[in-house]
Target: Oxygen-regulated protein 1
Amino acid sequence: MSETPSTSYSVNQPNSSESEQTLSTRHFNVTEPVVAKRICFYKSGDPQFNGIKMVINNRSYKTFDALLDSLSKRVPLPFGVRNISTPKGRHSVTNLEDLEDGKSYICSHQRKMKPINLEQASKKPLPWQISRPVSARRRAVQLARENEDGFGHRESKITTPRKILVFKNGDVRLRRTIVLGKKNTQTFEAFLDYMSELMQYPVVKLYTTNGRKVPNLQALILCSGAVVAAGREPFKPSNYDSLGYSRPAKLLGIANRVYPKANTKPESENSKKWKVSVLTSDTPSAGTSSKVYITLYGDHSSSGPIFLDGEEGKLFQRGNEDIFTVITGNIGHLYKIRIGHTNTGSSLAWHCEEVQLLNLLSGEQFSFPAHRWLAWDQADGEIPVELPVLQQGQPVLPVTVYEVHVTTGELWNAGTEADVYISVYGERGDTGSRQLLRSQKSKKFLKGQTDIFAVEAVHLGHLYKIVIGHNGLGSGNGWFLDKVVIKDPTTDLDYTFLCRRWLDEGQDDGNIVRELTVTDWAAEKWKFQTGNTLQFYNRLTRGFICLSPDSKVDALGDKKNKYGLFDVNVKRGNTYIFTSNQMPCLALALANGHVIGKVRNTFTCCELRVHLQPNGCAILESARNPGHTVTFNLQGEVAGETTGYAGFSQEFVVHVKGVFHHGAIILLNTSLCQALSLRPDGSCSGAGQQQQESYWKVHKIGSGLCMFESVRNPRMYLKIKDDQCNGTGTGDEYCHFKIEKNLETGSVSLESVRNRGIYVGLLPDGQTKPVINTGERNIFFYPQVIKFGREEPMGTSAAASQERKGIGESQLQPAKAQKPVSQSPSTFPPSKEMRNPQGGECPLPSHDEWKVSVLTGSAGTEANVALWIYGDRGVAGPITLGKDNRKQLFLPRQEDEFQVANEDYFVIEFLCELPVVEAGKPIYPIVLYHVYVYTGDLEQADTDSAVYLCIYGKRGDSGLRLLHKTGMRVTLQRGMVSAFEVEAVSLAKLQKVLLRCEASAKSQYWYCDKVIVRETENNLEYVFSCERWLPFVSQGVIHSEIELYPQGKVYCSFMKVRSVISNYSEEIWAEFTL
Model:
């Protein structure tokens, strides 16, 4: 140990929440007149720096520190401008009053100044005034002349390898990271040749990022970490600096500028003054040339990093004791310190023996034994070290080694070669910024890889956020971070921080540092909306949770067990009540640690809190008794004192019922942030964003069979045909997919119905491709419902390519619809099947075998015939009636029997509705509905596009009917009222109508004012207000159909109806006999 300790003074840069403090107070005479001083500032030791000319008065700069801050932004120094002196460096300037008008001064980040030739520096032309580059020969002559004057610099030699980032002039996207070493820096010309080979274009000149020329190796070494390589062209300004590649210290939490003794700020009443003694051990090579800083933590706040400055080259040497005086705010009772260094200079490693603190106000003394290396290549590789306060020889808080699991996403080019830093925040402070240096894997941060790091810190208590980022250096510095999981060995808790975003200046929002809070399972929140029906699958028992009528609960149910369905009821936040779908009075409950069924709303034990795990599973915890969870053993029994907890599971895969209901809008997610999307060229990719371009509309065509239509591009379907998988399908059989659900993962696979065993798969680049199931995850899609559909198609009204029934239409007289009306042929996919006896699957609600007999009258047909069957629980159909030999069907006066449905598409030309007849009478009458469609009086409100209508009632629907006149579409004219008649089996009380307008161009859009439906037999009138354009755009999606609900109901008694067709300038009256 040295007998004579060195003494120096330094002060902290406090937290942003506290006011800045200093050691001395400066006073200004406000009665003096405002005097402007014109001054030029130069950079210490840099004759190539052209100087900064500034006008200074006490209005532009209130304090000397404000001037230092301004100069720090304009003079490139590693730690900002901290000292100003006269040109020869003999006299230091500490006050604004000391500056003289018309003089020049030198700026430095150190106390020691390096003088320069001001006469030569002032004559140097500015970079943008140079018309041609300096040749190598001319540069050598200039250097020789400078050496003759005594102010030149010899070519410097690199003793310690150093990273530097090189940008292409004018193109920030082209950049390379190089390491300055002895081999590539023999001469400046050799370095330019090396750069030319690396950048793949001739490099003649180097500039700093703000446009100053780098003329030699000495200037290159003094650069801040990034340069711009140019040919013979002049410097091209760009946002090189804003990318932040060369400033990891901002993430580190190190101050951009600190205040040395001469420039400290005044003390406040609540400030504290500390004497800091730092002992460097006597171990060989224990000293360091790096900048050392210290941070003090109290129960009120922290001091922020404080640099311990002094005479360069004499601090923190082997065996020395260095003493400093620092000032902090009122941090409260001290409980830990952090000491570290910047890892710069010629001697990076440092062996710290001990740190001693003395509170100069209270007299409290603290000793922090360290006895460890602070170096990346020594011991555990940690540079900063945290030391807790000792009381009676024991730490007040334990030192914990956190296990940090960093998962890089599965996206292509998701990995990074940059240096990654993390700062962890908890109830008891933070870790400071730590570089994630030593992974258990040979290469860090690769695509899809999870790297594990150790971060040692005084225990932080409950963690609530992290800040993670990188320095932007490296050939592939962009990084897609999936998540970070921190394991606390002291409390045995795991904290998950989901990111799922790019940390890349060229992707996402361009940020390379992100603040992440503990995950709140937002990605799965859509499953837990009120009204959803859920199933909870347990991977251990391979069964679903079931709540029996006797209130017993087990985890042995299959997916068709009706007692395994639970309806969601939101209480607050992530607290829910899950009621039995079959017995709404019972709910899943945790009472006294046992899982049972309880009457809902009578006990708080029915309230369960949902915790989403990193693997996507959910844990159900009692809201009343935290720590009690829904748990089952291997036998599917509720785990408890009698059954034991050996081999138990408390995690469940949550499945939502109704995902693939007819008309649903869904996402087919391929990763946590990507989804299957349709591209403009008709191809499909699994790398689409989880936004509207990836929305698909579900068309249910049978049990477990669906089609997927693009919402953004209607009538474009996902298909597999001719060894291609894309979105150019037209709705034919190549667009049929069987949904295979994976209970273990919650994913689904899409198998082609036409090509059995062939699935929609993803290539490594995300493109879709027909593949076979090899057990890989490239066929897994994770559905997410944007809008739920209905369980069964209501007639033909919901599918995109459904057949439309004919409606007679007339402007003056409605046509009758009782007789079949010919239409243009259209195709329709079967949505319900009728199996033959060998099929083994019955489509109808009763699960019975059905035989259909059709008796043809005096005229036969060779057309396709389809059948819909309506019951009190839904509808079955369309069902194709056909056999192998079609010429033998539907002959005059022939009866045909059917038991088998044809799954192929068919053409519908004639359609009528028939009620069931019992005892010679129909159970429901055929009703003639009078429909009046009002077109608005807006400009271009008329349309000649196909318009369809479907009426819904308690007994079903009328089917989607084309509005036409004797088989021909007509124009719905502006300001006109068009009358139609719809004949259908009685729908009972009407509930809504659906309007659809198929306009191919915006000029064909239609403005509908309202629709009136009259039922003459019951003297009822229903008014459905529309008052909008069709199609219409909602949230960026074009909707061609809209559902209208009755606005009012009028009872009337009449024999004749007067229908007015008005264009608001004249009125025409017509009478229609009802």
User: Anything to note?
Assistant: Residues 89 and 113 are 5 Å apart (CA to CA). The two ends are 115 Å apart (CA to CA). The mean pLDDT is 76.
